[in-house]
Amino acid sequence: MNTFRCSPQQLRNAATNADTIGGAIRSHPVLYLSVGDVGHAGVAAALHTFRAAWSGELQLRGTATTGSAALLRGAAADTEQVDRLLAQAAAQLGSRT
Predict the structure, then answer these.
(1) Coil, strand, or helix at residue 14?
(2) 77 contact partners, CB below 8 Å, separation of at least 6
(3) Which of 45, 59, 68, 69 could cysteine-pair with 15, CB 3.0–4.6 Å?
(4) Is the pTM of this model over 0.70?
């Protein structure tokens, strides 16, 4: 049996955190620095190598955080809907006794 417990507000908070992380990934300075901004040829070469190796990964991670945030917001809405339906069912059962 699943024992995971999380309120809709906690799910929304997690979605906000995912948005924040995604924004940080997408706006990381290493993605926008010009090679001429660093001033040293060795650092410029390292920056170029890093971008070549990691730019795709960073884009994927940024996209994943967007998807995660949407999933968490959907889970919060679904949880609230289930709570409403259970409360209605309980009220109907209570009125029958």
Answers:
(1) helix
(2) 8
(3) 69
(4) yes
Nearest to 80 by CA among 2, 11, 16, 4: 11
How many other C-beta atoms are found inside a 10 Å radius of the C-beta of residue 76?
20
- Identify the H or E element spanning 48: helix 41-96
3-state SS, residue 55: helix
Q: Which pLDDT tens digits describe the chain residue by residue (97 residues)?
A: 678 788 999 999 999 999 999 999 888 887 777 767 777 788 888 888 888 888 888 889 999 999 999 999 999 999 999 999 999 999 988 887 6
73 Ramachandran zone, left/alpha/beta (phi>0; psi -120 to 50)? alpha
Residue pair 60/68 in contact by the 8 Å Cβ criterion:
no
Domain boundaries, the chain: 9-85
